[in-house]
Automatic annotation (TrEMBL):
The gene is betI_3. Residues 31-50 bind DNA. It comes from Vibrio thalassae. Keywords: DNA-binding, Repressor, Transcription, Transcription regulation. It comes from the Bacteria. This is HTH-type transcriptional regulator BetI. GO terms for biological process: glycine betaine biosynthetic process from choline; negative regulation of DNA-templated transcription. Transmembrane segments: none annotated.
Length: 198
């Protein structure tokens, strides 16, 4: 029987181990035995806490999403609610800096993206993340555009975030937050100009 309080230690340890193994060998080759070895525990511990590999992968995805949500919230807290473009930049930054930009996290994200197309639970988590991003963006964009325009632009920014993030993950240089911010600001400026001329 595990000691009291051990889940608080073991679960994050196993999530980190899962990301490290996925980084090294990919999602499909990330077996329970490799993850257990990486964490320095028996395979039975993974089954005990997560019910197997799928449960651990789901918890890993949840942890990445929690970290992203906390980063977005933290960034937004630092900026006055009247500074809408800066707040959009804060949302963008949260997707490209810190935890999200770590190599093993980026590779895990990428693996989950492809895996979620065929797994209903992971697909649901991906949709939650997408809705959260669009919601944050629309809150700021609704102050600058009509609701219909804000929806279109929010989807455009989300697509840019995903595309820039994907390219950054697949290149040796990695993710460039400054470049992402520049591209998205350029897009936003063009939208502001376009709609102001209508």
């Amino acid at each position: 029987m595990p000691k009291v309080g051990m889940p608080l230690v073991r679960k994050p340890q196993l999530v980190q181990a899962a990301m490290s193994v996925i980084d090294r060998v990919g999602l499909h080759a990330a077996s329970i035995s490799l993850i257990a070895k990486e964490a320095g525990v028996s395979t039975g511990i993974i089954n005990h806490y997560f019910g197997g590999k799928h449960g651990l992968l789901e918890e890993t995805m949840r942890e990445i999403l929690r970290q992203l949500s906390q980063t977005v919230t933290s960034h937004l807290r630092q900026i006055p609610k009247t500074e809408h473009v800066k707040r959009i930049n804060a949302i963008v930054d949260a997707n490209f800096v810190g935890f999200q930009a770590e190599n093993k996290v980026a590779k895990t994200w990428l693996a989950f993206w492809s895996y979620s197309m065929h797994d209903p639970q992971l697909k649901r988590l991906q949709r939650v993340n997408e809705k959260r991003l669009l919601s944050h963006l629309k809150i700021e964009l609704n102050t600058l555009f009509t609701p219909e325009q804000a929806t279109v632009i929010a989807n455009g920014i989300a697509a840019l975030i995903d595309g820039i993030w994907l390219r950054g993950t697949l290149t040796p240089e990695g993710i460039d937050a400054d470049k992402a911010r520049f591209i998205i600001n350029d897009y936003l400026d063009k939208q502001l100009t376009f709609y102001s001329l209508k």
